[in-house]
Amino acid sequence: xxxxxxxxxxxxxxxxxxxxxxxxxxxxxxxxxxxxxxxxxxxxxxxxxxxxxxxxxxxxxxxxxxxxxxxxxxxxxxxxxxxxxxxxxxxxxxxxxxxxxxxxxxxxxxxxxxxxxxxxxxxxxxxxxxxxxxxxxxxxxxxxxxxxxxxxxxxxxxxxxxxxxxxxxx
Length: 170
Known about the structure:
Layout: E1 2-7, E2 33-40, E3 47-52, H1 57-70, E4 76-80, H2 89-97, E5 101-105, H3 115-128, H4 136-149, H5 156-159, H6 162-165
Helix pairs in contact: 1-2, 3-4
C-alpha cells in the first residue's frame, strides 16, 4: 500500500517525435493536486485505488476500511512505509478493531522495496508524463482508470520465496 500525489503540471520524459518539429508539453503554473491511495494485490496484480483530497491519518484509516471491505474473508498483510499519515489515533483504532490486518513497515528511504511504488511509476509513465489535460479532474479520472484497469505483475512474492512456500493453485 502506498500513496501518490498527482499534479496538473505535466512531468516530462523522452519521446520520439518528427524531426525538425518541436514537441510541446503544456505547463500549468498552479500547484493544483489530488492524491491517491493504492494497494497492489501481489497475487492478482490488481490495484484498489481511492482518490482523496489530502493524505491524512483519517484518510488512511478510511482507506484501510475500504480494503477490509474489499477483502472480507482473508487476512491482509500490508507493506507500508513510514509516512506521517500512517500513524495516529485513527490508525491505531482500525488496527485494534481488525486483527486480520497486519503491517510490515519498510525501512526509512527504501521506496524500491514497495511494489506499489512501481505501480505509481508505470501509471505516471502511461498517464501523467507529457500529458495535455487542461483540468485536474480529467487527469485524475484517467489516472484512476489506468490503475484499476491494468494488471501490474510484481516479482515481489518470487523474490522473497513466497511461491516456494505457498505455490499458486492451478
